User: Fold ABC transporter permease from Mycolicibacterium fluoranthenivorans.
Amino acid sequence: MVFLNSFNADPNLAGWGGFTTRWFSEVLQDQRIRDDFITSLTIALATTVLSLLIAITASLWMRSASPRGRAILDITTVMRLVLPEIVVAVGLFVLFRWLDFPLGRTTVIIGHTVFLSAYATVVLQARVATIGTSLEAAAADLGATPWRAFRRVTLPQLYPAIAVAGLLVFTFSLDDLITSQFLGGGSVETLPVLLLGLIRHQVTPSVNAVGSILILLTLLTFLCALALVGVRTLSNLSSSRTESEEA
Assistant:
């Protein structure tokens, strides 16, 4: 309905007034919407990078961690998943105010990373648990340094999970409202926060147009990640087939 009404010529959405694309033109020409979209995109990209770094590090560290260390990591990860987002947002808000840390883009990125890195960690942990360490040990026996073994052996095996985790974090961060509203202060306004303010007065076709753009962007991101995973899988199958034929 959001997608259909974004093409509705009736400004009051009382009925179908015909097909039009002028609402998209108005949205693209609105400087405030464009600025908020760029802000949301920047925050989502930064959150994705930080969350993946945390998730990859935690997942690989867990293989050699002590049972107590694994338990602590599992507890902290599960806590961030089961706690309502508003509880995390309020807690971070109180912490930042207590530290006298100014609210803005940095605090929103930190808030998104604290909340969403747990999803990335779960995805990466599941992948790391299936790949084992035999290939890394073989690379070390052949003289590879730890960094080279990670870059040439471990990381390629994690690419599908990294793509999926990055997709989850990016889409959740782009659509996030609660954390952005609590930690943005008065200087940062993301697109979901703007939409919330607009629909308090009236749901217009322009609001539906913005929603449709977000939906299409999410689908496009998903298709890109799916294509990357598919290409990687086909490449691995081709390499395995070639090695088998040579053997």
